[in-house]
Each structure stands twice: as structure tokens, then as C-alpha cells.
Amino acid sequence: MPSPRRTARQADLLERLVTLFTAEGFASFTLDDVAERLRCSKTTLYQLAGSKQDLVRESVKHYFRGAAEAVEKNVAETADPADRVQVYLTAVARQLSPLSRAFLDDMAQFRPARDVYEANTRLAADRLRQLIAEGVRAGAFRDVHAAFVGEVAAATMRQIQLGEVGTRTGLTDSEAYEQLASLIVHSVTS
User: Fold this and answer.
1) What number is the average pLDDT over the span 114-128?
2) What is the pTM of this model?
3) Any long-range contacts for 2-11 (C-beta under 8 Å, 24+ apart)?
């Protein structure tokens, strides 16, 4: 759905830009390269953002905004508090799975993009704390300290986001989130 500030054509262009960057990364592209690959002019790209750096940041924000909406839709469709944590983290893993290693590496090296990923990781950790607390209140989880479990999860999520978990384990970000989901659900239900 186009943003109120964007035309349908601009919204489509942003979607194609996200698809390009998430598949191939962005660091090696010049604006000329992007314009050629998307079959548009640089002027058209400048209508989305004022520079390549701004285009990258807009693309990353757009990707994570859509991912967050998809994750929350999955959680909203899940009534059982015990299942919501698993559904949440599995949905996060599913949203991260199409991201190429080149894109993740480029994000890690480019501060504005990394800031967007970090902000989304913080929001995800806060949401996870909330879901754990809801599960404890509903009696679906044993009486754990939800804030502590959430903090441990948040620390792991930050390590995943920084690429450190992948480096040490060989797991992709998506696979690491799946493992985190399993670990948390088993720790709060056993």
C-alpha cells in the first residue's frame, strides 16, 4: 500500500529497491547502478530520498516496517499465550530469512542502516518481554521473571543483529532466531 507521501509509482520503486538491496546488498552500488537496475532515472530515485545513503536508510526502514507488520499479524492470529512467543520469534526468523549475507554485512558496516536494525531489535526485545509477561500472567508459563528472560533474549538478539552469533555458530540470523525461540519457550514452560 503506498504511503500517503508517495505515489503508487514511488511505492513500487521503493519495493523494487528493497528487493534489490536485500538480495545483493547495497555497498557496491552507485546511484547510476541502482537507476540502471531499476530502469529509472537518478531524478526518480532522488524523489524517494536525497542521496544514496538516504535511499539505503529508507529501504532498510521500509523493509523492517513491513516485516514488523507481518510478524504482528502472525501474533494477532495466535490466541494461546504459550504459543505467542514461539510464533513471534518464528515469524521474525521468517522475515529475516530472505536477507542476503551481503545485505546483512552492508548493514553492519553502514551506521544509518545499522541504527535502523538496532532500533528494530530493541523493539523486538521489548515485544518479547511483553509476550513473556502475558504468558506468565495467563499461567501459560511458569513463574519466571519476565523482564530477566526478556533481557537475556534481548542480549542474544543484539548478538544476532551484530553478526556475532553467526560468526561463532555458523547460523544465519533467521536460524539463530529459530533456535532462540526454542530455547525461550522450553525454558519458560519446563
Assistant:
1) 89
2) 0.84
3) 6/48, 10/47, 10/48
